[in-house]
Design brief:
2 strands, Alpha-Beta Plaits, alpha+beta
Length: about 100
Amino acid sequence: VDKFVKVLKKAKADVINIERWGLRKLAYPIQKKSTGFYNLIEFSAAPETIGTLETEFRRDESVMRFLTTALDKFAVEYNARRRKGEFNKNKKTTTKKEEEVAL
């Protein structure tokens, strides 16, 4: 991951967020492997930088698959809220007894 972040920094891209999801089971075997490390890099860069980054992904033998997507304004807003932890708050669930007491 650090190698690809360096490529982005060299191209003067703004790295917004890096998440290391760790070892996970793949949906289907890739190159006879059933698990892989997942990483998410959110960045803002010029369109020319994407080609350079994807070339580096293809050259690195440790990368089995990669996906590069463009985010719309709603996805950018959602990711900002997710980074702040708005979706991780514990929601209090009421049981039937608590509902009966409240009535």
